[in-house]
Amino acid sequence: MRVVIDTNVLVSGILFGEPPRQVLRLAAQGRISSVTSPALLREAEDVLLRPKFGLRPEQAVRIVALFRETSSIVTPSPRVSAIRCDPADNRVLEAAEAASADLIVSGDSHLLDLACWQGIRIVSPAACVQDLERLRKGSG
Description:
The protein has 140 residues and is an alpha/beta fold.
Protein backbone atom coordinates (compact mmCIF):
# COMPACT_ATOMS: atom_id res chain seq x y z
CA MET A 1 0.00 0.00 0.00
CA ARG A 2 1.51 3.31 -1.14
CA VAL A 3 0.91 6.02 1.46
CA VAL A 4 1.71 9.72 1.54
CA ILE A 5 2.35 10.69 5.15
CA ASP A 6 1.60 14.36 5.71
CA THR A 7 4.21 16.50 7.46
CA ASN A 8 1.99 16.93 10.52
CA VAL A 9 1.90 13.15 11.01
CA LEU A 10 5.69 12.92 10.73
CA VAL A 11 6.21 15.73 13.25
CA SER A 12 3.56 14.40 15.65
CA GLY A 13 4.92 10.87 15.40
CA ILE A 14 8.48 11.96 16.16
CA LEU A 15 7.70 14.45 18.91
CA PHE A 16 4.43 13.44 20.51
CA GLY A 17 3.58 9.76 20.08
CA GLU A 18 0.68 7.54 19.16
CA PRO A 19 -1.11 7.00 16.76
CA PRO A 20 1.08 9.04 14.36
CA ARG A 21 4.13 7.17 15.69
CA GLN A 22 2.40 3.88 14.82
CA VAL A 23 2.05 5.06 11.21
CA LEU A 24 5.78 5.85 11.09
CA ARG A 25 6.52 2.44 12.62
CA LEU A 26 4.38 0.73 9.97
CA ALA A 27 6.40 2.52 7.28
CA ALA A 28 9.72 1.62 8.94
CA GLN A 29 8.61 -2.04 9.14
CA GLY A 30 7.66 -2.01 5.46
CA ARG A 31 4.00 -2.76 6.19
CA ILE A 32 3.14 0.39 4.23
CA SER A 33 5.22 2.02 1.53
CA SER A 34 5.83 5.65 2.44
CA VAL A 35 5.97 8.14 -0.42
CA THR A 36 6.99 11.78 -0.17
CA SER A 37 8.20 14.65 -2.34
CA PRO A 38 10.98 17.23 -2.15
CA ALA A 39 8.42 19.90 -1.20
CA LEU A 40 7.10 17.81 1.69
CA LEU A 41 10.63 17.06 2.90
CA ARG A 42 11.47 20.79 2.87
CA GLU A 43 8.28 21.52 4.79
CA ALA A 44 9.11 18.83 7.36
CA GLU A 45 12.55 20.31 7.96
CA ASP A 46 11.14 23.84 8.22
CA VAL A 47 8.54 22.71 10.75
CA LEU A 48 11.01 20.69 12.84
CA LEU A 49 13.33 23.72 13.00
CA ARG A 50 10.67 25.85 14.68
CA PRO A 51 11.96 26.98 18.08
CA LYS A 52 8.84 25.72 19.88
CA PHE A 53 9.94 22.11 19.24
CA GLY A 54 13.36 22.60 20.81
CA LEU A 55 15.30 20.52 18.30
CA ARG A 56 18.84 21.35 17.30
CA PRO A 57 19.26 21.89 13.54
CA GLU A 58 21.27 18.67 13.17
CA GLN A 59 18.46 16.72 14.85
CA ALA A 60 15.89 18.08 12.41
CA VAL A 61 18.17 17.31 9.47
CA ARG A 62 18.73 13.72 10.70
CA ILE A 63 14.99 13.12 11.17
CA VAL A 64 14.24 14.33 7.65
CA ALA A 65 17.15 12.30 6.24
CA LEU A 66 15.83 9.14 7.90
CA PHE A 67 12.34 9.80 6.52
CA ARG A 68 13.86 10.41 3.06
CA GLU A 69 15.80 7.13 3.26
CA THR A 70 12.73 5.12 4.23
CA SER A 71 10.42 6.71 1.66
CA SER A 72 10.09 6.69 -2.09
CA ILE A 73 10.53 10.17 -3.51
CA VAL A 74 8.27 11.44 -6.27
CA THR A 75 8.57 14.69 -8.13
CA PRO A 76 5.08 15.98 -8.91
CA SER A 77 4.70 18.02 -12.05
CA PRO A 78 1.15 19.31 -12.31
CA ARG A 79 0.18 21.86 -9.71
CA VAL A 80 -3.01 21.13 -7.81
CA SER A 81 -5.34 23.79 -6.40
CA ALA A 82 -8.03 21.69 -4.75
CA ILE A 83 -7.59 23.39 -1.36
CA ARG A 84 -7.82 27.13 -1.74
CA CYS A 85 -7.90 28.20 1.95
CA ASP A 86 -4.46 26.62 2.62
CA PRO A 87 -2.60 26.16 -0.68
CA ALA A 88 0.36 24.43 1.02
CA ASP A 89 -1.92 21.42 1.62
CA ASN A 90 -2.03 20.92 -2.14
CA ARG A 91 1.60 19.69 -2.02
CA VAL A 92 0.31 16.55 -0.26
CA LEU A 93 -2.25 15.97 -3.00
CA GLU A 94 0.39 16.53 -5.67
CA ALA A 95 2.68 13.93 -4.10
CA ALA A 96 -0.19 11.45 -3.78
CA GLU A 97 -1.17 11.91 -7.41
CA ALA A 98 2.43 11.56 -8.64
CA ALA A 99 2.87 8.40 -6.55
CA SER A 100 -0.46 6.85 -7.54
CA ALA A 101 -0.90 6.53 -3.79
CA ASP A 102 -3.58 4.39 -2.20
CA LEU A 103 -3.87 6.56 0.88
CA ILE A 104 -3.00 9.93 2.40
CA VAL A 105 -2.52 9.99 6.17
CA SER A 106 -2.99 13.43 7.66
CA GLY A 107 -4.14 15.26 10.75
CA ASP A 108 -4.98 18.36 8.70
CA SER A 109 -8.68 19.20 8.65
CA HIS A 110 -8.53 20.67 5.13
CA LEU A 111 -7.33 17.34 3.78
CA LEU A 112 -9.47 15.18 6.05
CA ASP A 113 -12.58 17.11 5.01
CA LEU A 114 -11.98 15.97 1.43
CA ALA A 115 -12.12 12.31 2.62
CA CYS A 116 -11.19 11.18 -0.90
CA TRP A 117 -9.46 12.95 -3.77
CA GLN A 118 -8.88 11.50 -7.25
CA GLY A 119 -9.77 8.08 -5.82
CA ILE A 120 -7.19 8.39 -3.01
CA ARG A 121 -8.61 7.99 0.49
CA ILE A 122 -7.56 10.57 3.08
CA VAL A 123 -7.60 9.34 6.68
CA SER A 124 -6.32 10.26 10.12
CA PRO A 125 -3.40 8.36 11.64
CA ALA A 126 -5.80 6.51 13.97
CA ALA A 127 -8.02 5.44 11.07
CA CYS A 128 -4.95 4.29 9.11
CA VAL A 129 -3.78 2.10 11.99
CA GLN A 130 -7.30 0.69 12.52
CA ASP A 131 -7.71 -0.08 8.80
CA LEU A 132 -4.38 -1.88 8.61
CA GLU A 133 -5.15 -3.85 11.77
CA ARG A 134 -8.49 -4.95 10.26
CA LEU A 135 -6.73 -5.98 7.04
CA ARG A 136 -4.11 -7.91 9.01
CA LYS A 137 -6.73 -9.77 11.03
CA GLY A 138 -8.77 -10.47 7.91
CA SER A 139 -5.81 -12.04 6.14
CA GLY A 140 -4.48 -14.01 9.10
